[in-house]
Amino acid sequence: MVVNYASSRAGADTVVAAITSAGGRAIAVQGDVSKASEAQGVIEAAVREFGRLDVLVNNSGIYEFAAIEEVTEEHYRRQFDVNVLGILLSTQAAVKHLGEGASIVNISSAITHVHTPAAAVYAGTKGAVNAISGVLANELAPRKIRVNVVSPGYVVTEGTHTAGISGSEMEAGMVAQTPLGRAGHPDDIAGVVTFLASDDARWLTGENITASGGIR
């Protein structure tokens, strides 16, 4: 497995260590997926290290909240470059190596139907991810490559801590909307992604699974 990172080598190394300790094999590869050459470099590193490519999980993403009065061109482009262009460039680099039975899993967000205030740009990027995924599911189906989406609800991550969301009133509000009564954790999402990447999901393509603790 290749663990891609843009800037946090330490974080990627932690993930690699966890995979290795569980008996897996993984390497960390730096690359900004919003740049074609670097997205291609990540894919080439995977093929070079492991000899083939079977699964692509497009999980790179950033989020910034801003009321409509505060939206700037930079705010828009930064999120669309990583969240949307990054998926296109990574998938473009990967498809030449993916064969029959391969799986692409794109990470979207339940925010596309929860419609959280001050999230117009971020929600827009994830709406684009959903549309792109549907198109690619049809486009790549003749090659027997599956494309599916996972849309998490509120999940506690390093990003939520950095953004000051964890422990905030905003977090409390999102948990209050969650029928299962708690925030999500990365493991809650990982199991869904693993399923979609596996042969158990061989009859699924073009699907969007909302993993949100019941938020609709």
TrEMBL record:
<comment type="similarity">
    <text>Belongs to the short-chain dehydrogenases/reductases (SDR) family.</text>
</comment>
<protein>
    <submittedName>
        <fullName>Short-chain dehydrogenase/reductase SDR</fullName>
        <ecNumber>1.1.1.100</ecNumber>
    </submittedName>
</protein>
<dbReference type="InterPro" id="IPR036291">
    <property type="entry name" value="NAD(P)-bd_dom_sf"/>
</dbReference>
<dbReference type="InterPro" id="IPR002347">
    <property type="entry name" value="SDR_fam"/>
</dbReference>
<dbReference type="Pfam" id="PF13561">
    <property type="entry name" value="adh_short_C2"/>
</dbReference>
<dbReference type="GO" id="GO:0004316">
    <property type="term" value="F:3-oxoacyl-[acyl-carrier-protein] reductase (NADPH) activity"/>
</dbReference>
<dbReference type="InterPro" id="IPR020904">
    <property type="entry name" value="Sc_DH/Rdtase_CS"/>
</dbReference>
<keyword id="KW-0560">Oxidoreductase</keyword>
